[in-house]
Amino acid sequence: MPISFQNVSYIYNPKTPMEKRALSHINLEIAEGSFTAIVGRTGCGKSTLIQHLNALINPSEGLVLVDSFHNDANKKKRDKKMKPLRKSVGLVFQFPEYQLFDETVEKDVAFGPKNFGATKEEALEKAHAALAEVGLDESFYERSPFELSGGEKRRVAIAGILAMEPKYLVVDEPTAGLDPLGARDVMDLFKKVHEAGTTLILVTHDMDIVLSYCTDVIVLEHGEVAKVCKPADLFGEEVERYSLQTPFLYSFASRLSAKGYDIDAKELRDVSDLAKQIALRRNKK
Ligand SMILES: Nc1ncnc2c1ncn2[C@@H]1O[C@H](COP(=O)(O)OP(=O)(O)OP(=O)(O)O)[C@@H](O)[C@H]1O
Ligand SMILES: [Mg+2]
Questions:
Q1: Using CA positions, which residue lies closest to atom 24 of ligand 1?
Q2: Ligand closest to the CA atom of residue 220
Q3: 285 pLDDT higher than 70
Q4: Could you tell me if 27 and 5 are in contact, meaning their C-beta atoms sit under 8 angstroms apart?
Q5: For a Cys staple, 141 with which of 93, 106, 194, 213, CB 3.0–4.6 Å?
């Protein structure tokens, strides 16, 4: 398995009065080519978990393997060369402010490819293409990333990671702060990137997105893995026990079922699936 967590625990501020255990004995595998969602209530450890993937943080206990890279609690066993890992795992932070640093949008987005060996021209070309993909045109190139709106900052942060063409794209609540159409555009962009062969790992609180876009879902609870399954298997159950919302389509389908329509919720991914089922039932009558 290209990504695996083996008995991983993480403690913030160990051996201080501020000590906080964020992850406990995580065992997980994430398949190459998947579009995996990581969900769970606020504070359950999602952001902490994904920051292990590019060794921004190191486990307090256990081992995270990303291809051949060892992010091991034991310093002696931990790989020291970060560059290949940072090229392979692109992580878009929950708060884009933490990611942006350069004086212009263009330079900020071109930094990654340049850092990984592209010439200045190639880096700019990749930056322009990535900015176009997130819907930011030339008028943004010379602007300071710090003077943008929250949603624009998020787009720049996403472009900066896309420009590096990572093998694994890890995004932490990428649609937070975007308007509904903007959120859909960004998700459709990730879908395209996934279809082109990138493995996607998405942290989100939006279960409609999980249902529409993801192949697999991992539920965390109090720093532990509560469930690993397909989205349809999660939403068929009592999702509220994990503090998750039932996707709109599932709520609608269950109301239709209550009115006598025979709907197979497991087959639903988007509105057109539901429309097809309704039409099929009606034509049968
Ligand atoms: N820098 C830090 N220092 C101390 N404790 C932290 C730190 N960052 C996170 N924590 C704690 O670790 C736990 C897990 O936090 P984390 O940010 O991983 O949760 P999350 O699932 O991403 O939450 P959210 O949905 O709100 O983003 C929480 O209890 C949090 O308070
Ligand atoms: Mg978080």
A1: 42
A2: 1
A3: no
A4: yes
A5: 106
Q: Pick the more confident residue, 232 or 173.
A: 173
Put simply, whether the predicted model's pTM sits higher than 0.90 gets the answer yes
- The contacts of residue 195 (CB under 8 Å, 6+ apart) are none
Q: Which of 46, 57, 224 to mutate to test the pocket of ligand 1 (most atoms within 8 A of CB)?
A: 46
| Closest-approaching ligand to the CA atom of 42 | 1
| Minimal-distance CA residue to ligand 1 atom 14 | 45
C-alpha 120 to ligand 2 mean position (Å): 34
Cα(12) to centroid of ligand 1, in Å? 9
Question: Residue 260: pLDDT above 70?
Answer: yes
* SS (HEC) of 82-119: CHHHHHHEEEECCCHHHCCCCCCHHHHHHHHHHHCCCC
Nearest CA to ligand 1 atom 31: 43
Phi, psi of 228 (to 5 degrees): -130, 120
For the domain covering 3-240, report its CATH number. Answer: 3.40.50.300
Q: Structural domain boundaries of the chain?
A: 3-240, 247-285
Q: What is the pLDDT of residues 85-140, one digit of tens each?
A: 999 999 999 998 889 999 999 999 999 999 999 999 999 999 999 999 999 999 99
- 182-210: pLDDT as tens digits: 899 999 999 999 999 999 999 999 999 99
Q: How far is CA 189 from the centre of its chain?
A: 13
- Give the Å distances, CA to CA, from 136 to 96, 216, 225: 16, 30, 37
